[in-house]
Amino acid sequence: xxxxxxxxxxxxxxxxxxxxxxxxxxxxxxxxxxxxxxxxxxxxxxxxxxxxxxxxxxxxxxxxxxxxxxxxxxxxxxxxxxxxxxxxxxxxxxx
Length: 95
Description:
Blueprint: E1 5-6, H1 8-15, H2 19-26, E2 41-44, E3 47-51, H3 52-94
Antiparallel strand pairs: 1-3, 2-3
């Protein structure tokens, strides 16, 4: 099976990030390091590329994490609203 490879310009466009940001994601010493970001493969003496399907999977994982966060936030908001409503009812009964 043939995998599509992305060089830095195409990768930058796909993830909407500058080459410097991508290098930071790859650098373990950077505060912006992202250990989940796909690792490059060597395609020449001084050339690297990224497997497009791995980049797509990374993007999908970030979307899933965001959606899970939103779901958790919505659950917390609903629970807080329910607590406020119970508190209001309790205050009305006490009055």
